[in-house]
Design goal:
The structure is a single chain. The protein folds into four domains: 68 residues; 33 residues, no CATH class; 88 residues, Jelly Rolls; 107 residues, Immunoglobulin-like (Sandwich), CATH 2.60.40. The chain is built from four helices and 27 strands.
Length: 404
């Protein structure tokens, strides 16, 4: 080994202490090594306290030096010890080491066997305990940890049944906006809310078996389709705020509505859509589907009307005309009178008829003199068999449709 000379040392006359600067005594010297001091003298290393402190013997004989050059020379003592230890090792294990080119050259003992893959796969779990469900800790063996985990699973979910002691909460509902396709299958939650009023024809594509619970926040139309959106009653559904539904994916973009619950609590089936709370009221229509009451009636423009959910419209009006009648050939005719506006402008065919007149001197009938503009009754006059001097009342009725 080379001598070690890095750094400098501080020595004091008649002292056994050697203090180093920029030295590493521990890794580069041993007790028993020779120390040549700044005075050129040789001393024995008797103790190494650290990388910068050691003791020597005899005490330093030279003049005090705060930063002198030095050298540490290895002696043969510990080299001989190493050689002796190596010789003993060779004598004991030399034959085995000579044959040990790889593990195949070292035979198994009678009880200590190699941990081969085959033996690992067929090893018995002797000592496995399945009744201790304590938490696994670092000090556990693999066998003990496996037993604890199995006991924990069995205790929490027994095959014969059991109960959960805590809540199983689902993810926060995902909010989606209505559109032709609302991808509920791609939502990161099993619960979805749909807002807006756009008609929905598809719920997106996801693997068969996926289930989503949907809450509708407003009125929109779910379009029934045997290929994409199978709905109860086989018809489209007009939703209302806070209606809910459960949908099952059949795969390939087709969804089946397992259940639909109206916020009103009413049945979805058409035959049972109305009750005494909504049988009479505003009649409406959404994409050809009634979405209001069954019957609507009222008075607009002095005309009474009855409006049915299927589109049928009845209107009637009674007007009293003053001035009596004048001779009109063999009959007498009243003044012509503009009956004014209808309550509701009809669409399609429209039939108007008079169901009678009322006057003090006898009966008669009313006839239309001119056709009015759309949404009006037109002009009418009364015809009587005798002259009338007082007021005459004409009653009209119209039958048509308010939607096609």
């Amino acid at each position: 080994m080379p001598w070690y000379k890095s750094g400098t040392v501080s020595v004091v006359l008649n002292s056994n202490a050697v203090i180093g600067a920029d030295t590493a005594f521990i890794a580069n010297s041993r007790v028993g090594d020779a120390f040549r001091g700044p005075d050129g003298g040789w001393y024995e290393v008797t103790n190494i306290a650290g990388d910068t402190a050691m003791s020597i013997s005899p005490n330093y004989l030279g003049a005090t030096n705060a930063a002198g050059a030095y050298a540490l020379a290895p002696m043969q003592g510990y080299v001989k010890d190493s050689a002796d230890a190596l010789r003993a090792l060779v004598n004991q294990f030399g034959e085995q080491l000579a044959a040990l080119t790889d593990t195949d050259g070292l035979s198994e003992g009678a009880t200590n066997k190699y941990f081969t893959e085959t033996r690992v796969r067929t090893a018995l779990l002797s000592g496995l305990v399945l009744t201790e469900a304590e938490p696994v800790v670092e000090a556990d063996s693999v066998l003990a940890a496996a037993g604890k985990l199995q006991a924990q699973v069995t205790g929490r979910l027994p095959l014969a049944g059991g109960k959960m002691t805590g809540a199983m909460n689902e993810a926060t509902p995902v909010a989606l906006a209505s559109a032709a396709t609302v991808d509920i299958g791609g939502a990161a939650s099993n619960t979805v809310t749909i807002s807006g009023t756009s008609t929905v024809t598809s719920l997106g594509t996801v693997a068969a078996g996926a289930v989503r619970t949907v809450r509708f926040l407003g009125s929109l139309l779910l379009t029934h389709s045997a290929a994409s959106l199978i709905l109860p009653t086989g018809a489209s559904i007009a939703t209302a705020a806070n209606d809910t539904a459960v949908f099952l994916s059949l795969g390939g973009g087709n969804w089946f509505c397992l259940e639909y619950n109206r916020a009103s609590g009413k049945a979805l089936a058409k035959d049972f859509s109305y009750d005494r709370t909504n049988l009479v009221g505003p009649v409406g229509d959404l994409a050809g589907i009634p979405n209001g009451a069954a019957f609507d009636s009222g008075t607009i423009n002095a005309t009474r009307y009855v409006k049915l959910a299927d589109g049928t419209l009845f209107q009637y009006k009674t007007v009293t005309i003053g001035g009596g009648t004048v001779a009109n050939g063999n009959v007498f005719k009243s003044l012509s009178y503009d009956m004014g506006y209808l309550a509701i402008s009809p669409v399609g065919d429209w039939v108007v008829a008079s169901y009678g007149i009322s006057q003090s001197s006898g009966g008669g009938w009313a006839g239309q003199q001119t056709f009015g503009a759309a949404g009006t009754w037109g002009t009418w006059a009364a015809y009587t068999s005798t002259a009338a001097t007082g007021s005459i009342t004409i009653s009209l009725v119209g039958i048509g449709r308010w939607k096609l």
